[in-house]
Amino acid sequence: MRDIKKIYICGPITPIGNINKSVKHLSNIRAGILAGISLMEYGFSPYNPFLDFMYWLIGGEDRFFLSVHRIRKMDLDWISVSDALLALRGWKKSVGARGEVEAAKKANIPCFESIDELTAYRDRMREEGK
User: Fold this and answer.
1) In CA terms, which of 56, 89, 124, 127 is 20 to 30 Å from 17?
2) What does the pLDDT read at residue 1?
């Protein structure tokens, strides 16, 4: 039986529209980080792209290899080795998140919109011995 452990988290990070973008950006990141913590509490091992901003805080933009394109490519690479994808509220409004869900579906990786759905799926797979 293959257990459902590695969960890729996706959702809106960069805000759109006429809002306080700095506050909304931080709010989106906070939601993603909290989702990762919740997943850990349920025994999952999340890959959390909401932490990608740390590369720029620590690495600085002076490094030639550190680009948005490279980070997004790295994130997409993780989808292919994930057991499932968790799409957070508002993901349909995010171009990046829509691409991540599409990539997961192409790779036959199950996608969920809530932790409850995800844990129910995991528990069902365990019961069925899959």
Assistant:
1) 56
2) 46
- Flag residues of the chain having pLDDT under 50: 1
Range(s) of the domain holding residue 87? 6-128
- Is 60 part of any domain? yes
- Is 111 within a domain? yes
Contact status, residue 3 vs residue 126, Cβ threshold 8 Å: yes
Q: Number of folded domains in the chain?
A: 1
Beta-carbon contacts of 10 under 8 Å, excluding residues fewer than 6 positions away, are 49, 85, 86, 87, 88, 91, 94, 96, 97, 100, 101
Per the domain annotation, does 1 fall within a domain? no
- R_g of the chain computed on alpha carbons: 15
